[in-house]
Every structure is written in C-alpha cells, then in structure tokens.
Protein 1
Amino acid sequence: MEDRIDIKEILILLKNKLLFFGMFTLICGFLGLFIRLGYCVIFGPGTEYVYTETFLVEYGTDPQVGQSYTYINAATWDRIMDMDSFVEMVMAESSASGLTDGEIRASLSADLATDLRIPNIEVRNSDEKKAEQILISAGSAFVKYGDLRKEIDSIEVTDTTGPEIDKNIDRLPQAFILGLIVGVIICGIYFSFKYILIDGIYTLKKASERFGKPAVAAFDKNGEISDLEKNALGSFLSEKKTCALFLDADLDVAKKTNGKVLETLGNMGITAVCAKNAVELKNDTDQAEKTYFFMIKSGETSIGHVKNTMDNLEALGLNIDAICIFGADPKFIKGYRGGRK
C-alpha cells in the first residue's frame, strides 16, 4: 500500500513538542549570545578609550580646470593614516616614550561624515594616556601634513571629543537572533527525521494500513484504553485463550516502565509473550484455540523488522488476528481523536 503522510498526525506531534522546541530554541539563542560575549571578552580588544578630532580643510584650486581639488575622499584620508610618511610625522610630534610604529597604525583611522572639507581622526587604544598622546601627535601632524600637499591650502582643528569608553561588546542582539535561527533549524531537522522521514507508527490507522491487519486498541503510557477499544478487543477474545505477542526488546521496555500495559492485559485475560517463544506456542495442544494480538510500540520505526516477525509467526501457523499499539502519548491520542480519550 502506498505510504501517505498524515498531516493531522504530524501537526499534533509538532504541537505536543512545541514547548520542548521553544525551550531548545531559546537555549540556542542564549548560547549564541554567550558565545559572542565570550568572544568579545576573550579574543576582542577589550575596553578601549576613543578620541575623535574634527578638522576643517580648505582645498586649493586646480589651475587646469579652475576648480577646487575634490578627489580626497574618506578612503584617501584613512589611507593617509597608514602611510609611512604620516606615521613618521606622528612619531616625530610625540613626546611620549614607548609608542611604536605598529601601535600608531593600529590606533589611527580617519573618515568623512558628510562634507569633504570636514574629516575626522579617530584614535582607539586600551591605554587612555597613550590614546590621548597619539591624538595630540596625530592632530599636530595632520595640520602640518596639509602644508606639504599642493591640493590643500590649510587645515585647522575645529573640535575634539573623548575619551569615550568602548567595551567592544558588540552585535549581541544579532548573536542572539542567529542562535534562535540555528535552534529553529536544528528543531526542524530533528522533527523531519524523527517524525516525517523515519515515519514511525503512532496511529491505529497507520498500523492497519502498514500491516494489513485490524488495529483495535492504542494503550497509552498508563496502560489505559477507551471503552470502545475494550469492546473491540472483547470481540476477538470470545471463548479463546488470547496472547499478546511482543518483540523481545519491546516486552522488556513494557516491564521496565510502569508495567501498566501488562497489568491491563492481564486483567483482560490476555497473556503477554515474547515473539521468540513462538515455537513453544506452536507446539501447544490447544494452539487452534488461541487468539493472537501483535503489540507494536508507539513510535516504532523498524517497520521491516516488525513485518518480517509477523510473517515468520504466521509461517509457523500462528495467525495474527489484530494489532495493538502500546506506550502511546495520552496527549497525542486525545488530540488525534478530537479531544476525546
């Protein structure tokens, strides 16, 4: 028979896992947050002192076109900060000891906010005194640098701000959101493989379609079934002795859990037996007077193994009369039956 995805089954399984998936997704979000925070603290530059100095530049006139030079943009000013000639000027202006070429290059940057005539120099350093000294030296060097360029008539300082403290703990909201997205993806993959691609047995309808036998009862984790299912089971019992056949591992599971399903079966006069004891059952003198139910664990995915076991039992002369499911989630059963038990 062609396999069909039961949308209602999938939606109820998803609904019953929403709390778990929600908690897992939140954990992933906070994990992303803490990873980013740890990265910033351990591998980041740490707390930095930030100074900004603003300049007003008056450009000269290009004699060929009769207009001011305008090709010095934000990228040009930032590139100048890293030029050997400018760094040497900064070091020459500095009276502080211990400043290195590399430290000056790493601390300095420049940009243009809007106006081509108003560049900014930014200094970042984890040492406040060094940051202040680099700012003073770079500002003085910047003004003198203008005297060396034919494109520039003059440079003057218009504003100085700082120090501002930057803890360099950035992009934390983005890290949290990324963690949430990763959590949702993991939950989606998990749900797809566990409930859709692997396609376990959760409903009597699917069990009946897969194995071509009447599926009459779904015992929940408390060993309970509905009155209607009890009546359906009773119709198979009549005067015959009845055995519930379990896969070997499944019977162990039923015993190691609360054992309620075995108790319920016993109260109904049904004996629980391992499938491996099928040969002994076949040799019983009252073999023909027995009814057999095959018990399938809710969520069972080894469909081929179950089918092969049932075929082998029937080859030995044990006719499987019906199928039951055990260990089902009560919430799933209630949801699938429209709120009824």
Note: The chain has a mean pLDDT of 81.
Protein 2
Amino acid sequence: MYDVHINGDLVATSLSRGELNQWLLDVDKEINNINIKTQFRRGFNFVSQNQDDFLSFIYGLINIELKFNFGTNFIEILRNEFY
C-alpha cells in the first residue's frame, strides 16, 4: 500500500499498487500543458512523450517510492508501513 503527500499534506492513503497507478495516470491525463506534463513525467525519470509508453512505464514500476519537485509542489509517494 502507498501514501501520497503533496507539500507535506497527505492527499491519498493506503492506495493499492493498481490504485496508485491509476491516480498517477489520472494526474498525467489532466495536465494539458506539454511542458508541465514533461516535467511531471521526469519526476519518474521518464522522458518519452508517448502516452502508451508512459502507461507501460507506470505499470512496470516495482516497489515505487519517489520524492520529486513538480512545479512549486513537492510530491512524495511512500510505502505505507502498516500494510
């Protein structure tokens, strides 16, 4: 299970791996500006512009724990230690 924090605030808790993947894909889909979308994807060390590649990439991540800046936000995806 995973928790998502933005700027230190808990915005999602106890997400399964599939729920986390869907959350990440939904955020990516909502970003309309290509430069901002590229910045978001770089937080995962992903550089392609292809949506299908991003989908495969996200579902291929294993044991994800990330901390990265996205614009003025600091995003943390952490394993929930209680699961």
Note: The two ends are 6 Å apart (CA to CA).
